[in-house]
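User: Sequence in, structure out. Go.
Assistant: Echoing your sequence, followed by the structure tokens.
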Amino acid sequence: MSKDSSGRRGDRIRTLAITGGTGFVGGHLMRAARAQGYDLRALTRGWRPPEEGVDWVDGALDRPESLAKLCERSDAVVHVAGLINGSGREAFEAVNVTGTAHMIDAARAGGIRRFVLISSLAAREPNLSEYGRSKARAERLVAASGLDWTIIRPPAVYGPGDRETFELFKMASRGLVALPPRGRFSVIHVEDLCRLVLAVIGEPETYAETYEPDDGQGEGWEHRHFARTLGRVLGKRTATLAMPRFLMHGASRVERLVRRGNAKLTADRVRYFCHPDWVVTARNRPPEALWTPRIRTATGLKETADWYREQGWLR
């Protein structure tokens, strides 16, 4: 019996091999996939408690033998894992580029045709940051793989459990949000992102497509508008302070001296943050027949803030 483009021999896609399942987006994706009846094989660096419908595979992107095991008995790969904040080009290259190459090789060796890459809007500007450069290179590898691929480039992702946008919530709760220079950006709730990932899995019409989803805010969010909306959902009167680029670079140097390898505001991220246009491209939005966002951002921010409070992250 010959294979068809939907996955294994004549069968619909039933089992997903997922990288990054222990992270923010990957964790939400696994819960959403299980709710839709998928079986999962998921990569983990350490022991995980047993979960119904989930086979945890001990391994990492730099251990090709573990990726081969991950792909056993799987029908599709969803490659979520990636490095967001790194010390430099080599770190991003090792995880985002070489790790993706290893995942492609494992899919091919395992006879898996379907491959979904969770990339980043940063890939649109590869010369702006090492992170964006590595994501663009990963996309090129996937596009040249010969697999039935789809690339999804999320903008800023927020939702319960996220530690990146949590910094904005924390500042807003204190009444002052420090912002990059003037610009606009798009956002998406993690649950809407996960719905899109699952929507493309079995759709041949999405093969060889790159999608940029968002919350439906056509022209994105102006930085101050977003910060003030966040303040309102927190019940705070929030002031904003737009920081010039040179001040952000200065803050980055200080943080690097203080936190060294744990610094979050790296020079790479400053260049990323200061770019004035991180709004998704209209022509790359997913077709409405396939997917539309369901969660209004004000509602999603309120629910996320409530989760942070319940967990003791916010007071």
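User: And one key feature?
Assistant: Residues 255 and 263 are 6 Å apart (CA to CA).
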